[in-house]
Amino acid sequence: MTKLFETIEYYLQQRWFILTLIVINFLGTIYGFYWYKNQLLQTPTEWLIFVPDSPTSSMFFTIFLILYYFNKKSPFIEAMGSITAFKYGIWAVVMILWGAWAEVPSITKIIMVETISWTDVMLMLSHLGMAVQAILFFHKYHYGFFAILFVGTWTLLNDFYDYTKDIHPWLPYTISDIDFTVGQFTIFLSGFTLLLFYFLSLLRRKLA
Fold first, then answer.
1. Which CA distances in Å does 30 have to 33, 55, 59, 175, 190?
2. What is the pLDDT along the chain (208 residues), one digit of tens a residue?
3. d(CA 98, CA 77)
4. How many angstroms separate the CA atoms of 61 and 55, rounded?
5. Which residue segment(s) compose the domain that 128 sits in?
6. Nearest of 198, 187, 1, 27 to residue 91 by alpha carbon
7. Whole-angstrom Cα distance, residue 119 to residue 105?
8. Exposure of 14 by Cβ count < 10 A (0-12 exposed, 13-18 middle, 19+ buried)?
9. Half-sphere exposure of 14 (CA within 13 A, CB side)
10. CA 71 – CA 119 distance, rounded (Å)
11. What whole-number distance in Å separates Cα of residue 33 and Cα of residue 90?
């Protein structure tokens, strides 16, 4: 385990590695906004800011990486990028698997990839990467309780509007009729994510 941490720390100190992550996250952000284009075109202007959840989170994480590359810090950008990247990274993976299971409710068939397309695989890998990198950098952040409170307020407000104004990311058709249940899961995931990053902030202080 110590060797693993040492390896992670080694790469997090390599400028070429950080620059690679910046490029990947930047391109992923551009593609993410493009992915939402049809939904954005159908959304009233006043709600647009609440629609592209994943690309907005990766945008903030990209800004964090750029600041990190130049040895700068911004606690609120760090908090916004890391917390939302983890949440929406996990959320997207769960939604794809949930939609696949609802189509053919058998875990065996999901494992056999009978209901998951290559596009789904790409989306799951990219979103899982968002969640993983948000955790890997946890001891590089500088934010505390108030930044988490700010992001938590934004995140829960986003959840509220998503599922009361029906502007949440479009769901797989197999679970589109249970958006209330999906909303409950989303709020639970928000709470879990906020608690996780709060405890990580406490751990970071102990390791400092």
1. 5, 7, 9, 27, 24
2. 678 888 988 999 999 999 999 999 999 999 999 999 999 999 999 999 999 999 999 999 999 999 999 999 999 999 999 999 999 999 999 999 999 888 776 656 555 456 678 888 999 999 999 999 999 999 999 999 999 999 999 999 999 999 999 999 999 988 999 999 999 999 999 999 999 999 999 999 888 7
3. 31
4. 10
5. 2-207
6. 187
7. 20
8. exposed
9. 10
10. 36
11. 18
Number of domains the chain is built from = 1
Question: Under a CB-based contact definition with an 8 Å cutoff, are residues 73 and 142 in contact?
Answer: yes
Cβ atoms < 10 Å from Cβ of 117: 11
Q: What is the dihedral sign for C-alpha 105, 106, 110, 114?
A: negative
pTM of structure: 0.93
Which residue shows structure tokens 């999906």?
Answer: 182
Helices (H) and strands (E) in the chain, counts: 9, 0
Work out the burial of residue 7: count CB atoms within 10 Å of its CB; fewer than 13 is exposed, 13-18 middle, 19 or more buried.
exposed
Structure tokens at 178: 């249970």
